[in-house]
Structure formats: structure tokens, C-alpha cells
Amino acid sequence: MKFVNRHKELSRLEGLLRSRTSGLAVIWGRRRVGKTRLLLKWTEKNKGVYFVADESSPSIQRKFLSLSVEQALPGFSEAEYPDWQSLFLRLARDASQAKWRGPLVIDELPYLISGSPELSSILQKFIDHDAKKTNLVTVLCGSSQRMMQSAILDESAPLYGRADELMKLQPITIGYMKQALKLKTPRDVVQSYTIWGGIPRYWELASKVAQDLYTTIDRLVLDPMGPLNEEPQRLLYAESPPAIHLRPILDAIGLGANRLSEIASRMQEPITSLARPIERLIELDLIQKELPYGTDPENSKKTLYKIKDPFLRFWFKVVASRRSLFSQVSPLARSRWLKEDLPYLFATTWKDLCRSAVPILSEKWETIYEPSGRFWQGQGPEWDVLSQSPDGKHFLIGEAKWTEKKPTVHWIQNTIQELKNKGIPPVKRHPHAQIHYVLFIPEKPKQLKLPTDVRVVEAKDIIAALC
Fold first, then answer.
1. Do 7-168 and 357-465 fold alike per CATH?
2. What is the pTM of this model?
3. DSSP state letters, 346-358
4. 238 pLDDT band (50/70/90 cuts)?
5. 165-168 and 287-290 as β-strands: parallel, antiparallel, unpaired?
6. Of 26, 277, 240, nearest to 147 (Cα)?
7. For residue range 79-135, what is the model confidence (pLDDT) as tens digits?
8. In this predicted model, what pLDDT tens digit does every residue of 296-320 receive, in sequence order?
């Protein structure tokens, strides 16, 4: 699959080389998010050295690293390095003699540190002194956010404050999916994003199948031999330390438990035992908290937990409880279950995308709006999208509807009226704020007349905004 996006990250990395002095970049992010592809593209362009660590012994890792450095500094791997300090001292000396500025990329740094805890301090000395004298550009990268935190990002970490660039790599936004997967319509893009999210590895696998969405899902995920059939387990096992013990929480959320009490009840565990596991899942970017719009963040009684990544949300909703069943039935039978569950997931993802797009979309409207959220309260009505202008004089109330068929003018008019009939949500706002209504739908008719206080936004607008 063609390399897409990451323009800002590449520009920042290029800036380190252009500075003509030493530099350190630290990159981290969840697994599969594309860190390796980004760094390989950059190092290949600049004739740098890319090394990815694993769980082998420190002495073997040093040999592997020296073989990688050999590409830029001939003869480097001929020596045996008894410790990390001797390797980095030789690296600095040879780089200085060859006038080689890198970049030197060490990926999956946590694996090295777990086998050699002293490495953080050795790297600190190398960055502060030897690399600086050589004007060497170094990049340290890792997927284990906990270990990257302890090694680099915590105030007590040896390398704290040394980085010239700190990048937490995020999933690719939906705006690039049409290009990457050669999709035809905005509706196709939203539906594909509902399954694959913004994870480049999943996009790459889907592009190789190159069939309709349902067939692609079956071949990659539902089929027991599909490469993504056991993806969540792999992600959790690959963490450092392994996080497979957190799986029951994801299963509970996938089964519809969103409140802490519901999750604990589903797992038959006391609520007090879930605080740290929940926090770890949030650190791993696997789940997120959600509060009603305008609610005090400290009000934990109203907090909901939901799976953050679209693919994992799909997997735990559709696949987790049926894996045994899916292994025994035909692709046609699996497709029937899939088609029952996907409309709900399409609608859920659509609402998330609409809320994310509001601040960006509003840059082209008469009024700028802040980040939006949804509001719910007990058994009362729910509002999908709420936001307000920074000065509080304008208040946006939105409804995000995902429909299988193209909405008609009559349907749109009725839906807008239903939205107005809900009234104003009971949230804190400016008492004289002007109310504006927005309806978010996959596509709209060409001939559509609207009241001055109403706006209709379609999928192509959302996708264009989220680039």
C-alpha cells in the first residue's frame, strides 16, 4: 500500500537533520500505528541506520545493532562489544571520523532496557556528550508506553528533557482512507473506517484483498485462518509487560457494559479491583472515558467507558463472543451475522466522526465552535452533538444519523423537526446564546432548502475536514 499522511512527522524529523547539530527525537504510540513504516521511510531516504530490538539477550542485541550500523560505518561489526557503553563510544568515534550524522534509529527501545536497565543512563551520557560532539541525530522509539514513560518521559527518567522532538504517533485520520484503499464514495469510506480505523497495517491487509467490505472482513477477521482473527490477543501479549489479563474488561465492554459497576458485575469482580486495569487500558489507547457534555470531569458516577479503536470495537462486538461459532459455519452464515451488527457500528463511528469534525468544520462557518460532545441523562432524550462558541454566544445542537439509503428532503425535514422538539439540553450555557441546529447525514439531496438556523452536513464534508 502506498505510504500516506505523516507529512508533519516527516517534516519534523527532516528538521533535525537540517539543523546541522545533534538531535534526539522520541516517538511512541500503540502497536500497528505505523511507527516502523514512518521511520524506515525516513532512514532510507537519508541513508540512515534503522535497528529494531527484540527480546533476545543483551549480548546478541549488541551484535545485531553492530551489524545494522555496519551499513553506514564499515567494519563496525567486526569488534565484539562486552557492554553497551563500549558500543556507543565506538559508534561516536567512527561516526565522527566518517562525518556521518545519522540518523540512527533504535526501535522498540523498551526491549533493550528490560534486558539492560543501565542502558537509559548510558544513552543519557551518549546523547549529552558523544552524540553532541559528533552532531549525530538519534531517534528512540517504542510501543510500550509504560516503559517509554519510565525511561524517557517521566521527570525522574535519565533521558527526561533531552528530546528535541517528542511525538506520540496517532492513527491516520479518515481523510486519507479513500486514497489508500481506492474507495469510490464517502459512504464506503465511513463504512471501511468503522472496521479498520486509522491503523495502517489493517489498511494494508484490506488493500491486498481488494474485494467488497463484507468479503474482506470475512477473509481477514471472521475466518479462523484470517490474519486478524486473533489480533486483540496479539496486541495484549505484545505489550511490555504483557497485558492479556486486561482482556476480560474489553470483553465486558464489547458485550455492552459501559459503566464501571456494569463491567464489574459482568466480570463478577469488585469495583475496587478495576481502577488500575482501567487506567492501564487508557494508557494503551485501547479504551477511553466519556462524560455527558458539560459535566465535571471529576463526576465519576456519570463516566462511561468505551473501546477507542474502531477495529477493536468491531472485534469485541461482533467476533469475540462468536469465534467458536464462526469456525464451524460457512462464510455465508458469517456474513448474515455481520450484516446484523454492522448498522449499529456504522452509526456509532459516524457519531464519533461528526463530533470530532465540528471544530474544524466550523472554521468555514460564520461561528467557530469548541470541541463537541454528546449529552445523556437517565431515561431522558440524548443529544448526539453539542458545542458552543468560545464566547458562549452561540450554542450548537446536532443530530448524527447514519442511514442505509440516501435521505429524502421529507425525511430530513422531519428529522430536523424531531431534533428541535427535543428542546434544549440541561447543560450549562450562556442564557442568551443563539441556538443553531446541525443534521449530519451520509449524503443530502441537491435541492434542499433549509431554515437559517439549520445546517446539513454530509459525509464528504466530514472526511474532508478530518485530513
1. no
2. 0.91
3. HHHHHHHHHHHHH
4. confident
5. unpaired
6. 240
7. 999 999 999 999 999 999 999 999 999 999 988 988 998 998 999 999 999 999 999
8. 887 667 899 999 999 999 999 999 9
From 418, 421, 425, 416, select the one nearest 450 (Cα to Cα). Answer: 416
Q: 265-301 burial string, b = 16+ CB within 10 Å, else e?
A: ebbeeeeeebeebbebbebbbbbeebbbbebeeeeee
Spans of all domains in the chain: 7-168, 175-346, 357-465
In the beta sheet, which residues pair with residue 399? 439
Domain 7-168, CATH 3.40.50.300 — does that match?
yes
Residue for grid cell 431534533: 419
Handedness of CA 88, 89, 93, 94 (dihedral sign): negative
The burial of 392, by beta-carbon neighbours within 10 Å (0-12 exposed, 13-18 middle, 19 or more buried), is given as middle
Say which CATH class 357-465 falls into: alpha beta
> What is the DSSP annotation of 95-131?
HHHHT----EEEESHHHHHHH-TTHHHHHHHIIIIIH
285: left (phi over 0), alpha (psi -120 to 50) or beta: left
d(CA 334, CA 330): 6
Domain 175-346 has CATH 1.10.1740: no
CB-CB contact of 111 with 55 (8 Å): yes
Contact between 190 and 349 under an 8 Å Cβ cutoff? The reply is yes
